[in-house]
Amino acid sequence: MADVVPRPPHAPAEPGTGPYPATWEADVVLHDGSTTRLRPIRPEDADALQAFHVAQSERSTFLRFFAALERLPERDLQRLVRVDHVDRVALVAVTAAPGAVGAGDVAPDEEASAGDPPERIIGVARYDRVDGESAEVAFNIADAHQGKGLASVLLEHLAAAARERGVRRFVAEVLPQNGRMLHVFRDAGYEVRQRTEDGVVQVTFDIDPTERSLAVMADREHRAEARSMRALLSARSVLVVGPGPDPARGLHGAHARRVLTGLLPAAREGTVVVHAVGVGDGGPGEDDGSGDGVHLHRRVDDVPGPVELAVVVLPAEQVLDVARRLGALGVRGLVLLSSGFAEAGPEGLARLRLLLGVVHGAGMRLVGPASFGIVSRLDGTTLDVSLAERPPRAGRIGLFCQSAPMAVPLLAAVDRRGLGLAQFVSAGHRADVSGNDLMQFWGEDDSTDVVGLYLESIGNPRKFSRVARRLATHKPVVVVTAGRSGQVVPPGHAVRPTRAPRRTLEEVMRQSGVIRVENQHQLLDVVQVLAHQPLPSGRRTSILASSASVAALVAEAAAAAGLVVTGRVELLAEDAPADDVRATVDRLYADEQTDVVVAVRLPTLGTPDPVVPREVARAAAATGRTTVACMVDLHGITPELTATDPSGRVRTVPAYSAPEDAVLALGHATRYAAWRGTDRGRPVRPEGVDTRAAERLVAAHLAAGRATDGRPVPLSPAAVAELLGTVGVHVLPSVRVHDADEAVAAAERLGWPVAVKTTVPALRHRADLGGVRLDVADAAEMRADVAGILALAADHDPGPGVPPLEVQAMAPHGVPCVVRSAEDPLFGPVISFGLSGDATDLLGDVAYGVPPLTDVDVTEIVRTPRAAPRLFGYRGLPRLDVAAVEDLVARVSVLADALPDLRALELAPVVVSTSGVVVLGASASVAPADRADALRRLART
Predict the structure, then answer these.
(1) Which among 788, 718, 779 is positioned nearest to 754, based on CA atoms?
(2) N or C: which end of the chain has fewer CB within 10 A?
(3) For residue 154, is pLDDT > 90?
(4) Angle formed by the axes of helices 611-623 and 578-589, nearest 10°
(5) DSSP alpha helices (H): ranges in 533-658?
């Protein structure tokens, strides 16, 4: 099969073609968990496209072209590869060509070249515009790659490219016997219309995203990424590639030997087939040798395939060549322990991008660089490809972290507490595999009950929110981030810049239902109670203590942690007999007003007491009341606090070093249980919203403003009003004027009374400073107010070409609010709501939300500001129309979610009265944007 060498992404366009849209390039995960690369077709793909066509079966060719066609005629071939990327668009799926290495036959300790390997085409999707908003589509998938979901993902990306070019509808002609293609269209979630004419099925469907199509995309993404992680975590054949005996590479060699040592038990048992290259003395006798169940080889090319997982510990400049060779072995995942990539500067970043291209093009996922490795227990087999001295205990906790150094204290703390893990993954600089991928897997994994994430950076917060919310609905997710804002970017991590407020990540976490904690210590505190105790049924807290003073301290800490202290306290003397201990414990746990129990036993002599832990464990297991403990000499998961519940499940009351730690963890658990038990609502879908019209308006403003350099284009008041009108938001009409005569004339047209205000931004909403005059009833009053406003604003410039005054009809009296949205490069659209005023701005009394929002999210946003009680009948005033405020926030959120190019929008002031809301002012700007989660795609740094 002929191959094509990839062209640099910014190479000039060929004659007869349009500019190459590099932003359409994407690496994707397919239905079976493998990966491939999508990109626009190029003229130099002609030979590869012909080879793809020739290799297809007669049936596949007939279904595509409705005729037998052994070869593409040269004229047709050139037409197919030469497109303008506007009215004629084609995307190809490519993978590494068989045997493509790009370097000579080298061992791991030899230098390798970094040239691009040839690619082969495995799928083609194209459209040709037939009228203004319609285009005819066609697909062709390699026979060997059918059934992997390649056509579905090509359809998603082709539809996105088409929408970008103004196409809104796809049409296709499909033979009735081509059931697979018909299913691709139907299963995509679009409203498909079809009819049969002359033996051909005519298919038509709009390609604007629908609730169902978005749900289909998310579900496919979820299943594909879960399968790709399962392939890594359940690997039963592993290749370890080390640097050989070179003493100058001692650390690399030590890491490779450490990984191989961890694999020895599985190799001896025969549960994992282990191969090694460059681990040991590297002598000639290693070829095809074995020891301790490990198959030793001199070169990667000598390893018999297939191999499912590879662990590479080499200098960065040698990794690329080895990765190419691994593709020939059928490797599904590459764990890279080496560093020297993006953190090493531009050269290292370029090296990483090349590596990702090779890895994804060969169908692999990359864990790393700078990973600590993986420990996984699935189907009764332990896979340990980590740098840990010994694997952690077996358990039902999934744990994820990033950099290798942070994995060391984390695993040490897990060991000290006696916690057991189902899987542990260190993603290093997470160039590819991230916490999102692992959450997708843990959502499907029956061996995991609780998930813990230690995140130094979050590369795609919108996807994190979506994936975490899905997982948190049935499994607790506990997260600690580097810094409260989550805006720390460690060296080597690819993270977009952000302009969002520091509280935005906090809101993302809250909406997602994850439990956010402050540090590693709290992470494991919360994980251990969720992994070993049932979820709390409520917040009502009873206390078992060894003294009244201890009970009082525990009660205060519990209240601070958000628990409800009922006053139910049982005291146990230090020398209480065993019968008294049992009776006291049973009496406490029998209380129907108790949801959770805090047991604290701190004897003054510090003597361990086996009776109290045993009785507490027994009663907690028997009643199902969530319990935490603080007892001398007990920490973490201990046999002393372990018992069996009525269903036969082993339950352990987690022990903490301090009562404050125990109640803090319990407070997090109760809030999570309440979130999980609460209806999270439905995505907001206000009536009268036309986002397609809004998209057309924004596209026209971008074109008119020539917004090609990324700078925002401000919209005129009339343009903002028109844009808001597409989502059913109406701005109270106003007239900008230059002097008193024009102001009087405007008031006559609008109808008295009116408001008159300055257009100077610093004063236009400041009635307290005289910038706004209300209830202006006649011409005389108007002239006097205009004179005062002009005098006040004499030293201010409203802006070039902006008249100094604005006249507006009076709105009903009410409470002024502000609704804003801003498009952030990292977080996407961020919505904010607050009440107007200096105090709100100075104190930051603003609520944030990250669309898409549910009706419950909107309700919480409106109620979150501390000043929000003013909307609900504060101090005897009438309750205002809160439902109208919620409707306005929902409409703004839908608009912001649908329009990435809407850089900023502000509605201020928005007056909330007893019977509705009135938007008095609005401003907006637009700029080209590129959201990180717009399509299914892997990171390419």
Answers:
(1) 779
(2) N
(3) yes
(4) 30
(5) 548-560, 578-589, 611-623
Out of 78-92, 534-548, 822-836, 921-935, which region has the weakest mean confidence (pLDDT)? Answer: 921-935
Tokens found for residue 688: 């009268």
Contact 830, 824 (CB under 8 A): yes
pLDDT of 707: 60
Residue 107 pLDDT more than 60? no
Question: Does 324 score more than 60 pLDDT?
Answer: yes
- Residue with more model confidence, 489 or 679: 679
Rounded to the nearest angstrom, the gap between the alpha carbon of residue 796 and the centroid of all alpha carbons in its chain is 45
State the DSSP H helix or E strand holding residue 470, giving kind and residue range, or none if neither: helix 461-472
Task: Round to whole Å and give the CA distance between 747 and 439.
Answer: 60
Digit-coded pLDDT (tens) for 260-307: 999 999 999 999 999 999 997 544 334 445 667 899 999 999 999 899
Spatial distance between the Cα atoms of 189 and 168, rounded to a whole number of angstroms = 15
3-state SS of 4-33?
A: ECCCCCCCCCCCCCCCCCHHHCEEEECCCC
State the pTM of this model: 0.89
CA distance linking residue 298 with residue 302, whole number of Å: 7
* Full DSSP string of 792-854: HTTT----TT--SEEEEEPPPS-EEEEEEEEEETTTEEEEEEEE-SHHHHHHT--EEE-SS-B
Tell me the CA distances in angstroms from 511 to 201, 376, 461, 860, one per residue in order.
44, 30, 12, 10
Rounded mean pLDDT, 917-925? 95
The answer to which of 184-193, 605-614, 822-831, 898-907 has the lowest mean pLDDT is 605-614
Question: What separation in angstroms does the CA of 811 have from each of 101, 372, 760, 909, 914?
Answer: 72, 62, 21, 11, 12
User: Cα(200)–Cα(218) distance, rounded to whole angstroms?
Assistant: 32
- CA atoms 723, 724, 725, 730: torsion sign: negative
**The sheet that has 237-241: what strands, in order across it?**
289-291, 294-297, 273-277, 237-241, 309-312, 333-336, 365-367
Contact 821, 893 (CB under 8 A): yes
User: Residue 195: how many CB atoms within 10 A of its CB?
Assistant: 9
pLDDT at 116: 53
Name the average pLDDT for the chain.
90
CA-based torsion, 340, 341, 345, 347: positive or negative: positive
The count of C-alpha atoms lying within 13 angstroms of the C-alpha of 398, restricted to the half-sphere facing its C-beta, is 27
The pLDDT value given to residue 487: 59
Residue 3's pLDDT band (cuts 50, 70, 90): very low
Strand, coil or helix: what is 500?
A: coil
One-letter amino acid at 363 equals G
Assess whether the previous peptide bond of 392 is cis (omega < 30° from 0). no
Asked if 819 contacts 910 with a C-beta cutoff of 8 angstroms, the reply is: yes
Asked whether 532 and 393 are in contact (CB, 8 A), the reply is no
Nearest CA among 500, 501, 503 for reference residue 484: 503
Q: What's the Cα-to-Cα distance from 765 to each of 656, 757, 768, 904, 907, rounded to whole Å?
A: 54, 8, 9, 19, 12
Reading the block at residue 676, the tokens are 């999980």
Omega of the bond leading into 909 within 30 degrees of 0 (cis): yes
55's tokens: 């290799």
pLDDT in tens, 593-616: 999 999 999 988 877 789 999 999
Q: Which residues pair with 745 in a beta bridge?
A: none
> Are residues 137 and 126 in contact, defined by beta-carbon separation less than 8 angstroms?
yes
Which DSSP symbol is given to 271?
S
| CB neighbour class for 706 (10 Å; exposed up to 12, middle 13-18, buried from 19) | exposed
Residue keyed to tokens 């542990």: 424
**Rounded distance between C-alpha atoms, residue 605 and residue 603, angstroms:** 5
The tens digit of pLDDT for each residue in 217-266 reads 999 999 999 999 999 999 999 999 999 887 657 899 999 999 999 999 99
